[in-house]
Amino acid sequence: MIHKKKITVVLPAYNAAATLEQTYNEIPFDIVDEVILVDDRSSDTTVELARKLGINHIIVHEQNMGYGGNQKSCYNKALALGSDMVIMLHPDYQYTPKLIHSMAYLIANGVYPVVLGSRILGKGALRGGMPRYKYLANRMLTFFQNVMMGQKLSEYHTGYRAFSKEVLQAINYEVNSNDFVFDNQMLAQLCFKGFDIAEITCPTKYFDQASSINLRRSAIYGLGVLAVSVSYRLQKMGLAKFTIFNQPKSID
Q1: Closest CA to 57 of 78, 37, 83
Q2: Can you name the residues that pair with 36 across neighbouring β-strands?
Q3: Is the CB of residue 85 less than 8 Å from the CB of residue 8?
Q4: Inter-CA distances, 98 with 27, 119, 156, 203, 208, Å
Q5: d(Cα 252, Cα 235) in Å, to the nearest integer?
Q6: Is the pTM of this model over 0.85?
Q7: 50 DSSP 8-state letter
């Protein structure tokens, strides 16, 4: 805990057996209270390894729900455990757990309610192995999103994110896609609600075991990102209404 705030790390896992132990062992348990792993129907030994490591909260999807569907299970479980802040960490070791302290303290001290680990801040993206086409696509999409959404983020496409409880309770992430565009829909919802977002520099790591989507799926993701940004602008201008910005979150 920090200032008596319960901190939970969520691990959205899919075939992460090769990197899970290394990721888990670097989580700073001096402040982290709970770890949740959601396995999205992996075909490797991710679940068995998670149990061996002693991860207390393991959810196994009976069928593959997609990256967005995995996150929904992660956040629902974290809120059910009474978490005050939730940090999403990919178990493929592409993002270092060593930044959890910095991200958590920004939220715990009331400085920002949302913190992103940005691969673009600084000069480490290409040096860390990010494919050049992905770097260029990231920069172009981010520029378009900043213009359409009136923000100044360095990137919208990082998977390293920390949220206060109040943030997760304020948006209806359940109506978002179960695919990769979930990340962008969620950020758009947060911006629409007026939450301030902080970014910290995150080293980039690309290697064989790190998860990555292929060119075709990257193109589909890019089109989805453009659609989210345009939808945001249209709703802000009062020209249209979209479910992800309109539908209130149900309260059980």
Answers
A1: 37
A2: 10, 57
A3: yes
A4: 7, 14, 21, 10, 21
A5: 28
A6: yes
A7: H
| CATH number of the 7-246 domain | 3.90.550.10
> Where are the domains positioned within the chain?
7-246
Q: Is 191 in contact with 110 (CB distance < 8 Å)?
A: no
Q: How far is CA 147 from the centre of its chain?
A: 22
42 Cβ neighbours under 8 A, 6+ residues apart: 13, 14, 15, 16, 17
* Helix residue spans in 98-181 (DSSP H): 100-108, 124-127, 132-149, 165-170
Type of residue found at 178: N
Three-class SS state of 22 = helix
**Tens digit of pLDDT for each residue in 189-236?**
999 999 999 999 998 877 665 556 677 888 899 999 999 999 999 999
Q: Which amino acid is at 112?
A: Y
Contact 1, 34 (CB under 8 A): no
Question: Helices 215-236 and 132-149 meet at what angle, rounded to 10?
Answer: 10
Cα separation values, 24 from 20, 44, 51, Å = 6, 17, 12
Instruction: Give CA–CA dist 42/13, Å, rounded.
Output: 8
Q: What's the CA gap between 122 and 197, in Å, rounded?
A: 18
Query: pLDDT per residue over 159-190, tens digit each?
Result: 999 999 999 999 999 999 999 999 999 999 99
What distance in Å separates the CA atoms of residue 135 and residue 184, rounded to the nearest whole number?
17
- Residue 37 pairs in a beta bridge with 11, 58
Amino acid identity for residue 32 in this structure:
V
